[in-house]
Amino acid sequence: MATTKFSRERLPDKLLSAKAEAVSAFLSSEPVERTLAFAATSRPEHNVVGVGIGPKMVKGKPTSGYSVRFYVVSKIPLSAIKKDHVLPSKVKGMSADVVEVGVFRAFAVGPTAEQKRRRPARPGSSIGFQFPGSKATFVMAGTFGAVVTDGSNRLILSNIHVLADENNLSPGASIFQPGLLDGGSVNRDEIATLSKFVPLDFSAPNLVDCALAAVDRANLISAAVLPKVGKLASAVPVPAVVGMKVHKTGRTTGYRTGVVFDVSADVKVGYEGGTAVFQNQVLIKGDTAQSFSDAGDSGSLIVDRATKRATALLFAGSASHTIGNHISDVLSALDVTLVV
User: 8 near 207, Cβ under 8 Å?
Assistant: First the structure.
């Protein structure tokens, strides 16, 4: 099969059918577990953290032809794997590949880069909520993703775990810029209030990790993403395709570039509230020696470098791969459009 740069909507039926069978057989509902540096498990229910579609990789390079991909915490030599733990080389006649990605986790907090107080606040900067009740001694920060509109109001778009403490906050909760981890002040830096979110489901598949915050005053925010991403060329998203060159500005790692690695990945992601399964996600790898993102970059808008149009919303990842929701799914779920 030629290495056509398929978008999610144009993936061949036989590949999608093979992927669905692989998900059913190997992507279990077992929680994501931390793995010791000196030990790894070959049991598929613990080692397989995702299933997707993309070119078969040989020595880190894509070959000609698409395959079903098994994303694993650890790629273990065949000689060390029990026979009944070996993943298949083909699924429904389609070639299969095994790619090591580590453990996927929601990117909530981490070291700081774009943590400054900004007025107007811009996508790519630090943002976050205040932990309630007994957790009030903790502080956090994530990334302001984009400015969107519901037709009447301008709102801040980010992740549910950046604006709503996963499912734990209610509409009206205060949102701060910068996030309190980055020196934001409860008394001075409230910029918005939680408006709407799509609840995370820890018992059924998810499609998006997203939330909205209503700003107190329209002049408190600007739609242009922080450098070097800048202003979007259009409010209309562009579908992600394998090989697309993308970039983002995030609260932790700042400006980074990468390449779309998969546009149809089903993955298991670890949250504070448990393990959540997501379907049809975008995977991205950094195109330099640096990773594309790190903890605290959750919420960043991922933008196609060629068209300057949004393609995904960053929400999780591992040391090697970043995960994003298709931005079209996010906008549809929240019933909003991008502002440029």
Answer: no
